[in-house]
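User: Good morning. I'm curious how zinc ion would be positioned relative to this chain. Could you predict the structure with it bound?
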Amino acid sequence: MHNDLVAALDIGGTKIAGALVDGHGTIAVRAQRPTPAKEDGETVMRAVEEVVQELAASPSWGRVSALGIGSAGPVDASAGTVSPVNVPGWRGYPLVRRVREATGGLPVELIGDGVAITAAEHWQGAAQGHENALCMVVSTGVGGGLVLGGRLHPGPTGNAGHIGHISVDLDGDLCPCGSRGCVERIASGPNIARRALDAGWRPGPDGDTSAAAVAAAAREGDPVAVASFERAARALAAGIAATATLVEIDIAVIGGGVGKAGDVLFTPLRKALADYATLSFVRRLTVAPARMGTDAGLVGAAAAALAGRTGVAAAGV
Ligand SMILES: [Zn+2]
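Assistant: Good morning! Here's the predicted structure, ligand included:
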């Protein structure tokens, strides 16, 4: 059974990726389409169906026993619906039923993209071997997921661990989610760049004002760029410390574009964590960069399909 194949879909605002994945997490077959994110819901679904059809054309399709979906959120795993912020044509969209129909009736497991990345890091990446972990994606947004007691903890609707929208600044700036001072409002890539620009940082001749450009400036010692990353690091540290204090995680794994900033992020983050994670049972908490690359969403969706297929933690999730 362990070498049986599952199918995986990673659905985001820019692309719909699909793969056949074996029981060791190795990707055997791939398919991909751009997400027609501005189009109506049925047009987006046709792109998903094309990816599924391309996978189904593989001679290995007959061995596929289940399909896992990691989707941009919010998702509602209990209802089998998705409402991705960046795909307005899908609101309460019955993705699980539609994908099941497209596959001729395979079992379908749905999880949010943050939870999918957590499943991948726990199965094969930086959280491997950890019984209690928080995995985060710090990028255009800030998402995440939890492993508790050695198992993935998606929560009833598949959104548990969504650390980007817990408040770490009570009177802070309004967040698009409706709350104030959210981790995402302070630590996401666009917010790191905005804060640096507001404080007088200016891009180089290439005009690049991304968080990656701010990270490069911070590495050169630009004090405004350094300060913007330090502020992001404090927000992340406060959110991670709160999570650790609530549920006793022992590692926080950070991926996504901002997670690739390296020491510019991780040095102030480890320092700030010592300020916020103060109780005896959270002092051993460590932070580590993510190890899974761009396939994390697919591998995590496959892990969910394997776990769902057997009803137990087949893939260590
Ligand atoms: Zn928010």
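Residues 223-247 form the longest helix (25 residues). Residues 112 and 159 are 6 Å apart (CA to CA).
Let me know if you'd like a different ligand tried.
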